[in-house]
Amino acid sequence: xxxxxxxxxxxxxxxxxxxxxxxxxxxxxxxxxxxxxxxxxxxxxxxxxxxxxxxxxxxxxxxxxxxxxxxxxxxxxxxxxxxxxxxxxxxxxxxxxxxxxxxxxxxxxxxxxxxxxxxxxxxxxxxxxxxxxxxxxxxxxxxxxxxxxxxxxxxxxxxxxxxxxxxxxxxxxxxxxxxxxxxxxxxxxxxxxxxxxxxxxxxxxxxxxxxxxxxxxxxxxxxxxxxxxxxxxxxxxxxxxxxxxxxxxxxxxxxxxxxxxxxxxxxxxxxxxxxxxxxx
Length: 280
Known about the structure:
Blueprint: H1 11-24, E1 35-37, E2 44-46, H2 53-56, H3 59-69, H4 74-84, H5 87-97, E3 99-100, H6 107-120, E4 127-131, E5 138-141, E6 147-151, H7 152-157, H8 160-175, H9 179-201, H10 207-243, H11 246-257, H12 269-277
Helix pairs in contact: 3-10, 4-9, 6-8, 6-10, 8-10, 8-11, 9-10
């Protein structure tokens, strides 16, 4: 028998194409296997056991992650950050400043978290908190024990499906296993320039060394913050896989950008898409 000229696919290529098929087609057919009865609005949503990270990760995120891995002295910088800002202190802040969601406190939010974890097959369930952040969104952080903090403002303008999209997007970000980067980026975003100079004060360096260190920290900080922004493209994909409804996903994103309580019925998804195309 003549040999086929078609090259044999690698295991990685096969897994990638299989997961892309899941992304492109499976969520449109609720009658496929791995169905689950949803806690939000009584919908049947498909689960994705064993889904690969690369099937969800956006190309912008993948490129930024690759660039971040090449930043000089990044591992040393991360160790330095974690030495100063112990993760235990972050959890103390959460438990002292926010409300922890549980089956007994805001159980509907707890059920949405459980649903997102089940759909995206996250092995470790994050702890969920709610608090005033000043904007309708959520943040995720933590390395050993991941957490999600959802803003009170989000619960005031999002319905349950939209909250599922939001929580699912952060469950997806946690699934990527890069929370040490994200935690550090959140510290830098929160601390800003003051935080950077605070870090430099711990270096006990000479004036010239401080200038050099300042440039290095700023370079690392800018790369981390750029990477952190790119991860949200992947988070949006994870949110869409969780809620499995295009209009819900887009409406949630539009509400994050701007929202008028008395005119919420006037949100136009197609106008939002046209606006986004300007940035292509």
